[in-house]
Amino acid sequence: MADGKVVSIHYTLTLDDGSEVDSSRDREPLNYLHGSQNIVPGLEKELTGKELGDKVEVVVTPEEGYGPRYADAQQHIAKKDLPPDMEIQPGMQLGAEGPDGVPMVLHVVGVDDDGITVDLNHPLAGQNLHFSVDVIAIRDATEEEQEHGHPH
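Given the sequence above, the corresponding structure tokens read:
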């Protein structure tokens, strides 16, 4: 496959310990526009040149996955800065706007009387990602899909 192709894959994602994180095998396949950074960079790189019917086993390092885990990426948010009617619990994900206006996800890791502690790392940061992929369809992207940067 090459840039500008809409690719459909079934995949299973596991970690070093063998635990399954995600899989498309019991649902619709994942469709993405190759070359548009719609998927993990290391996986997209490994899928370049593959063909319909190929089966791929690849380990993506943190550098080509979700990046390293930064120990200083946890922040405490004071209770007064939170919506008053929101019941927040550890494990929740909250949408927020970063300093540059870019949307970001905050992962709640702790709640106390003073507020909450959030982790700005992606949950899979610092992890090797083991992908088992089956390429099940490849087609040319439409002009609209190429303009939008994703399949429709």
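The radius of gyration is 19 Å. Try to locate this feature in the token string yourself.
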